[in-house]
Design brief:
Layout lengths: L8 E2 L16 E9 L8 H9 L11 H19 L6 E5 L14 H10 L5 E3 L3 E3 L17 H5 L2 E3 L9 E9 L3 H13 L4 E11 L16
Parallel strand pairs: 2-8, 3-4, 3-7, 7-8
Antiparallel strand pairs: 1-2, 5-6
């Protein structure tokens, strides 16, 4: 999959080691940097991520409009890249940590992708990866070990009817921190399709000084 390399940027060999589970075979791209430990109000990109991840229990409150604005902003960011793609591609949102039957399940990325892909004939958005049961974020689970990509993969379900019929697949998420979710979803897809080319696309990559305090899903549980 060829992107306009000016937008987004590649997770290349200079920063690859910051993402514990990624390796040189993984193709991942990002638009902005999320500065961990700085809070959502630190800069416009931290604020965008914070508003995008705002929980559904804020619906109807004064700040709910900021989530809606963030979804539109994320869609605009994504569209700038998706509209440059000249060959059919399947675009799949990486699922959040809550299952679809949970009242707090948030399909924010699906909504953003639907807006971003409107009228783009080469972009096929499919919400086909889901988590079977809610999982606890690492910062709430005490001393329990974090789940590896292989363990995370066991919690995922692939709804592949109809089958994916494009060579290229893009997995999209708001923030990449260690790469575990991307690797779990990639592994799930490759179990079923051994001839597809999978790319990761993220609104932001996490940058922080100490990985010990963060997991891919930590940001989902901060608000």
């Amino acid at each position: 999959m060829q992107f306009d390399m000016a937008n987004p940027q590649s997770i290349d060999e200079l920063i690859l080691s910051d993402y514990h589970y990624l390796d040189e075979e993984d193709k991942c791209f990002f638009f902005h940097v999320y500065l961990a430990n700085k809070g959502y109000a630190f800069n416009e990109y931290n604020q965008l991520i914070g508003n995008f991840k705002k929980k559904l229990d804020r619906k109807g409150q004064f700040d709910w409009k900021y989530k809606q604005q963030a979804i539109k902003k994320v869609a605009s960011i994504l569209r700038g890249t998706l509209e440059t793609i000249q060959t059919p591609v399947t675009v799949i949102p990486i699922p959040p940590s809550l299952c679809k039957t949970d009242a707090m399940y948030d399909d924010r990325m699906l909504k953003a992708l639907q807006l971003a892909s409107a009228g783009l004939k080469n972009i096929i958005v499919r919400d086909i990866i889901s988590i079977e049961e809610n999982r606890e974020a690492s910062h709430t689970n005490g001393k329990k070990p974090r789940l590896s990509p292989q363990q995370l993969q066991q919690l995922l379900t692939l709804e592949d009817n109809p089958h994916i019929n494009t060579k290229n697949v893009i997995l999209v998420d708001d923030v990449i921190t260690t790469g575990s979710q991307f690797k779990a979803c990639k592994g799930l897809l490759l179990q079923e399709y051994d001839n597809i080319d999978i790319t990761g696309l993220f609104i932001a990559r996490t940058q922080h000084d100490d990985f010990s305090d963060f997991d891919d899903e930590d940001l989902d549980w901060l608000m």
